[in-house]
C-alpha cells in the first residue's frame, strides 16, 4: 500500500480563487482539499453558512463541480434526494454517464449539529450512499460568531460573551460523532488538515465506502476564534498536539486513533493562542485540562493502547 | 447598473452555469502584506501551495537552478491577483523562504 | 382507454403518480393524506412502480429531498396536508424560484390550533403565495387527472414551475368513486419525460441556489412572475392535449348556468359538486343561480372567471379558509373582488365563509347563501355593511 504524502496531492484546483472567505480561513483549506481528495465526480449539496455564502455570490461561483444549496437545515435531505435520483435514473437507463458519482453533503456546525440534526439523522438512518462532511468552526460564524452546539467550553461568542455573570460558553461541545455513530453507519472519522495525509486517506476512504459516511473536519476561524490569519495551520496543529482534537476513525465499529501523540502539550498552549479564550482564569484553564485528560483517558481505553500520551510541559 | 443583464437574459433560478467564475473577482486588494518567495531558499516542499486557502500559490512546471547549483523541476509563485496576504504560507514554510512585505500601492 | 376502478381520492392520486412513472417519491404521512404514501409504498414494494421511495423523517425533508432529486434530473412526487404543508413552506418558495418541476398532492385540511384533521382550504390557501401553480380538484377523477396534467405543465420547457394539486381532505381523499385510471404508456405519451431544466451533472458542473445580492435578486423574482403568467398558455394547451388523449375536458374555471344567472355562487373543491346539485334544484324553483367552479387557483384565471360573472347581479364567493384581519377575510374572495374591480364590474360581491375544520356544507346552507346574496342585488359595494358572513357557525 503506497503512502499518501504531500507530493501525492492532486494538482487540479476544483475550488477557484476569487471566493470571499476570510484571509487565512480554515474552511477554505478544508474545502480545497476535500474537493481534491474526491475529484470531479461528485455532486455537492451544501447547507447555508460561511462557505456557501462566500463561494456562490451571484454571478460568481468558486465551485468547479456540480453544487446545490437549498436551505440551512436540509443539506442531508437534499443529498438524500440527489442520491435517490441518481439511483433511480441509473436503474431506468436515463443517466448519461456510467461512472460512479458520489453525493456529498457539506454543512457547518450550525447546519449539522443544531438546525440540521434532524435531516442528518434521517439520512443516516435511511442508509443513503452519501458522504457528509461537517466543517466545524465551532460557532455560527457566517451570521457573526454566535454560539452553536459545537462551541467548546468557555469559548467567547457573541451570544456567550464573557462578563461578570457569564464566562463564555458553559456547555461542552456536542458529541456529533457519538450521535452519528449511534446510527450504525459504516464509517465516521475526524480530520485535521494540519495532518494532510491523514485527511486525504480518510476522505477517500469515506467516499469509497458505500455510505452513509461522516467526516468531522476541524476548521479554524480567524475572526471567530480571534487570532492572526497566518496562524491557521499552527492552531490546527496545536489542537492535535494538546489532545483537544483527536484524529480517529471508526470503521465498522472498530475504533482507531490515526494520529498518535506520544507527548501532549498542555492545553494552555492551545487556549492562549486564541482571543476567544483570553478571559480564562487559571482555574478555568485547569478545568479544561482536566476534561481533556479525561477524554484522552477514555479514547486510549477504547483504542486499547496509550496512543495519546501524557501532558509534558514545554 | 445599466450594463448588468435584465431578467430576460439571466439563467433561471439564479443558476450559475460557468464553473469557477469567481476567478473574475480579483481579491488582490484585500492585502495589506504580500508574500515574496525567495526562489534561492525555496526547497519546493509544496507546503505553501498546500495550505494557501485561495488558492493563490501556483505550482508551475518551470525548472529552476539555484546559484548554489540545486536544480528543481517546479517553481512556486504567488498569484498576486488573488493573494489576500494571510501569511499562512510564510508561517508554514519550513526554510523561511517566504517573507511578508508591506504592500505599496 | 383506461381501466375503471373504485378509488378514493388518495388512491387516485397515487395511481396518477404511478402512471407518470415517477423516479423518486419522498413523503411523510399526515392525516388525511396517508393513504397516498401507503399506496405508493405498496406499488414500489410490488415492483409496479420503479421508483426510489424515501422514508423521510419530516415534511421539510420530504420537499427538500424532492428538490434535490428534481435538481438531479428525476421526476418526483410528494404529498402532504395542513401542518406538513406549513412545515414544507420554507422549501416551497425555494422550489419555485429554483424553477424545479416538482408535483405535489395536497389533501386539504384545517390548520392548528386547535388541531383538526378535517377538510378546509386553510393549508392550500396558506401556501398560495409560494409561487407554485395550484389546482383544486372536485373529485377523485379530477385529482387523478390533474396530477398527470401537472407533470405535462411543470416539465414544459416554457414553464419549469412546481405544481400542487389540492383535493378536499376526507371528502375527496377518502370517498371511493369510480375513477378512469390512466395507464403508464398513455400517461408518458401525454407527459413524456424530458429533463429540460438545469440539472446537476458532473459533466457540466453548475451552481444552483446561489446568493443574490440586491443587484441581482429582483430579476429572478420577476422571472418567476412572468413565467407563472405565461404558464396560463401552457395550461390551456395541456388541457386541450389532455382531452385529445383521454377524452375528458378540463378548464381553468367552469361555469354552470352562469349565462343568465342573477346570483353566481363561486366555489372550489367538493363544495362545487354540492353547489351544482343545489343549483339544479334551485333553477327548478325559479331561482336564477349559477355556479362558478375555480379549478386553477394560481395563476388565477381572471379572464375565464370574469366571463362567468360579468352578467351577474350578485357574486357570492364561498371560502373555506380565512385570512384573519385582512381586508378580504376569504382568500378566494380577494381574487374575485380584484378580478371584478380591475374590469369595472360594479355589482355587489359578498364573501361567505363555510365549512371550516370539516364542518358539513349542506345544500340548505347554499340556499341561505344564495338568498342572502340575492338580497344584496342593486346595492353598491360601499353601501354593504359587512362583506363577509360566517355561515354555519354557532353565535
Give the SSE map.
The complex is a heterotrimer of chains A (314), B (105) and C (395).
Chain A: H1 26-38, E1 42-46, H2 50-55, E2 67-69, H3 75-91, E3 102-108, H4 109-114, H5 117-126, E4 130-136, H6 176-181, E5 187-191, H7 196-208, E6 213-218, H8 222-225, H9 232-241, E7 248-251, E8 254-257, H10 267-272, H11 282-303
Helix pairs in contact in A: 1-7, 3-5
Chain B: E1 33-37, H1 47-51, E2 57-60, E3 64-65, E4 71-72, E5 75-78, H2 88-92, E6 98-102
Antiparallel strand pairs in B: 1-6, 2-5, 3-4
Chain C: E1 3-7, H1 9-19, E2 24-26, H2 34-45, E3 52-54, H3 59-71, E4 76-80, H4 82-97, E5 103-108, H5 122-126, E6 133-137, H6 140-154, E7 163-168, E8 177-181, H7 184-190, E9 207-208, H8 217-246, E10 253-256, E11 263-267, H9 271-284, E12 289-294, E13 296-298, H10 302-309, E14 314-319, H11 331-342, E15 349-353, H12 363-374, E16 388-390
Parallel strand pairs in C: 2-3, 2-4, 4-5, 5-7, 6-7, 11-12, 11-14, 14-15, 15-16
Antiparallel strand pairs in C: 1-8, 6-13, 10-12
Helix pairs in contact in C: 1-2, 1-6, 3-4, 9-12, 10-11
Quick check: average pLDDT of chain C? 97
Kindly report the name of the CATH homologous superfamily of chain A. Thiamin diphosphate (ThDP)-binding fold, Pyr/PP domains
**Order of neighbouring strands in the sheet with most strands of chain A:** 2-1-3-4-6-5-7-8
Number of domains of chain A: 1
Q: Give the strand line-up of the largest sheet of chain C.
A: 3-2-4-5-7-6-13
Number of strands of chain A: 8
> What is the CATH level 1 assignment of the largest domain in chain C?
Alpha Beta
Please, how many helices of chain A?
Answer: 11
Structural class, judged by helices and strands of chain A?
Answer: alpha/beta
The total count of helices of chain C amounts to: 12
Tell me the span between the first and last alpha carbons of chain A.
36 Å
Shape of chain A: globular
Mean pLDDT of chain A: 96
- How widely separated are the two ends of chain C? 52 Å
Stretches with pLDDT under 50, minimum 5 residues of chain A? none
Write the element-wise H/E pattern of chain C from the N-terminal end onward: EHEHEHEHEHEHEEHEHEEHEEHEHEHE
Task: Give the CATH topology of the largest domain in chain C.
Answer: Rossmann fold
Total number of beta strands of chain C: 16
Beta content of chain C comes to 15-25%
Helix content of chain C: 25-40%
Amino acid at each position: 500500500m503506497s503512502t499518501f504524502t504531500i507530493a501525492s496531492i492532486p494538482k487540479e484546483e476544483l475550488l477557484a480563487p476569487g471566493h470571499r472567505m476570510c484571509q487565512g480561513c480554515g474552511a477554505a483549506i478544508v474545502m480545497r482539499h476535500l474537493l481534491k481528495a474526491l475529484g470531479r465526480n461528485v455532486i455537492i449539496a451544501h447547507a447555508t453558512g460561511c462557505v456557501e455564502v462566500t463561494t456562490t455570490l451571484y454571478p460568481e461561483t468558486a465551485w468547479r463541480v456540480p453544487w446545490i444549496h437549498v436551505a440551512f437545515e436540509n443539506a442531508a435531505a437534499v443529498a438524500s434526494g440527489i442520491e435517490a435520483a441518481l439511483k433511480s435514473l441509473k436503474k431506468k437507463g436515463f443517466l448519461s454517464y456510467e461512472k460512479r458519482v458520489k453525493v456529498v453533503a457539506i454543512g457547518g456546525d450550525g447546519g449539522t449539529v443544531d438546525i440540521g440534526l434532524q435531516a442528518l439523522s434521517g439520512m443516516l438512518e435511511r442508509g443513503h450512499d452519501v458522504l457528509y462532511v461537517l466543517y466545524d468552526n465551532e460557532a455560527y460564524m457566517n451570521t457573526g460568531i454566535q454560539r452553536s452546539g459545537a462551541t467548546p467550553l468557555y469559548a467567547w461568542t457573541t451570544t456567550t460573551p464573557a462578563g461578570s455573570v457569564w464566562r463564555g460558553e458553559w456547555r461542552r461541545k456536542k458529541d456529533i460523532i457519538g450521535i452519528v455513530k449511534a446510527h450504525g453507519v459504516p464509517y465516521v472519522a475526524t480530520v485535521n488538515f494540519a495532518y494532510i495525509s491523514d485527511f486525504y486517506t480518510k476522505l477517500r476512504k469515506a467516499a469509497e465506502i458505500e455510505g452513509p459516511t461522516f467526516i468531522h473536519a476541524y476548521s479554524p476561524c480567524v475572526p471567530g476564534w480571534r487570532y492572526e490569519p497566518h496562524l491557521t495551520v499552527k492552531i490546527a496543529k496545536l489542537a492535535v498536539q494538546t489532545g483537544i482534537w483527536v484524529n480517529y476513525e471508526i470503521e465498522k465499529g472498530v475504533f482507531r486513533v490515526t494520529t498518535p501523540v506520544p507527548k501532549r502539550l498542555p492545553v494552555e498552549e492551545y487556549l492562549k493562542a486564541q482571543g476567544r479564550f483570553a478571559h480564562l482564569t487559571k482555574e478555568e484553564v485547569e478545568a479544561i485540562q482536566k476534561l481533556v485528560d479525561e477524554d484522552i483517558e477514555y479514547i486510549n481505553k477504547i483504542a486499547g493502547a496509550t496512543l495519546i500520551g501524557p501532558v509534558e510541559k514545554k | 447598473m445599466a450594463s448588468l443583464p435584465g431578467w430576460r437574459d439571466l439563467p433561471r433560478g439564479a443558476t450559475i452555469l460557468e464553473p469557477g467564475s469567481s476567478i473574475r473577482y480579483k481579491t488582490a486588494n484585500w492585502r495589506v502584506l504580500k508574500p515574496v518567495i525567495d526562489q534561492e531558499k525555496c526547497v519546493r516542499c509544496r507546503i505553501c501551495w498546500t495550505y494557501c486557502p485561495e488558492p493563490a500559490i501556483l505550482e508551475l512546471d518551470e525548472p529552476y537552478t539555484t546559484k548554489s547549483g540545486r536544480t528543481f523541476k517546479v517553481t512556486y509563485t504567488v498569484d498576486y491577483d488573488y493573494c489576500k496576504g494571510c501569511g499562512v504560507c510564510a508561517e508554514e514554510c519550513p526554510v523561511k523562504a517566504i517573507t511578508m512585505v508591506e504592500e505599496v500601492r | 382507454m383506461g381501466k375503471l376502478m373504485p378509488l378514493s381520492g388518495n388512491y387516485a392520486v397515487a395511481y396518477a403518480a404511478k402512471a407518470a412513472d415517477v423516479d423518486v417519491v419522498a413523503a411523510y404521512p399526515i392525516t388525511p393524506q396517508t393513504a397516498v404514501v401507503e399506496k405508493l409504498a405498496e406499488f414500489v414494494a410490488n415492483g409496479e412502480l420503479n421508483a426510489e421511495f424515501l422514508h423521510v423523517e419530516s415534511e421539510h425533508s420530504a420537499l427538500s429531498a424532492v428538490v434535490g432529486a428534481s435538481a438531479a434530473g428525476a421526476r418526483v412526487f410528494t404529498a402532504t396536508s395542513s401542518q406538513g404543508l406549513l412545515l414544507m413552506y420554507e422549501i416551497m418558495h425555494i422550489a419555485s424560484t429554483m424553477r424545479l418541476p416538482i408535483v405535489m398532492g395536497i389533501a386539504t385540511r384545517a390548520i392548528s390550533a386547535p388541531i383538526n384533521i378535517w377538510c378546509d382550504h386553510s393549508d392550500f390557501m396558506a401556501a398560495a403565495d409560494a409561487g407554485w401553480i395550484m389546482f383544486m380538484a372536485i373529485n377523485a377523477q379530477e385529482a387523478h387527472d390533474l396530477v398527470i396534467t401537472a407533470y405535462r405543465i411543470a416539465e414544459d420547457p416554457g414553464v419549469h414551475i412546481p405544481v400542487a394539486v389540492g383535493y378536499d381532505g376526507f371528502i375527496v381523499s377518502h370517498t371511493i368513486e369510480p375513477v378512469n385510471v390512466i395507464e403508464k404508456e398513455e400517461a408518458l405519451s401525454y407527459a413524456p419525460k424530458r429533463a429540460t431544466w438545469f440539472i446537476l451533472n458532473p459533466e457540466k458542473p453548475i451552481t444552483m441556489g446561489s446568493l443574490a445580492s440586491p443587484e441581482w435578486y429582483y430579476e429572478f423574482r420577476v422571472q418567476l412572475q412572468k413565467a407563472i403568467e405565461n404558464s396560463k398558455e401552457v395550461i390551456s394547451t395541456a388541457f386541450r392535449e389532455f382531452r385529445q388523449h383521454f377524452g375528458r375536458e378540463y378548464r381553468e374555471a367552469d361555469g354552470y348556468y352562469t349565462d343568465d344567472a342573477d346570483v353566481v355562487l363561486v366555489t372550489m373543491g367538493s363544495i362545487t359538486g354540492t353547489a351544482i346539485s343545489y343549483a339544479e334544484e334551485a333553477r327548478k324553483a325559479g331561482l336564477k343561480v349559477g355556479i362558478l367552479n375555480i379549478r386553477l387557483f394560481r395563476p388565477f384565471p381572471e379572464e375565464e372567471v370574469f366571463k362567468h360573472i360579468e352578467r351577474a347581479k350578485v357574486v357570492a364567493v364561498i371560502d373555506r379558509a380565512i385570512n384573519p384581519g385582512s381586508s378580504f377575510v376569504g382568500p378566494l374572495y380577494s381574487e374575485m373582488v380584484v378580478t371584478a374591480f380591475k374590469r369595472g364590474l360594479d355589482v355587489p360581491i359578498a364573501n361567505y365563509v363555510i365549512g371550516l375544520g370539516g364542518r358539513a356544507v349542506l345544500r340548505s346552507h347554499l340556499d341561505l347563501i344564495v338568498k342572502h346574496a340575492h338580497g344584496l342585488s342593486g346595492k353598491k359595494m360601499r353601501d354593504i355593511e359587512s362583506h363577509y358572513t360566517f355561515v354555519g357557525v354557532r353565535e
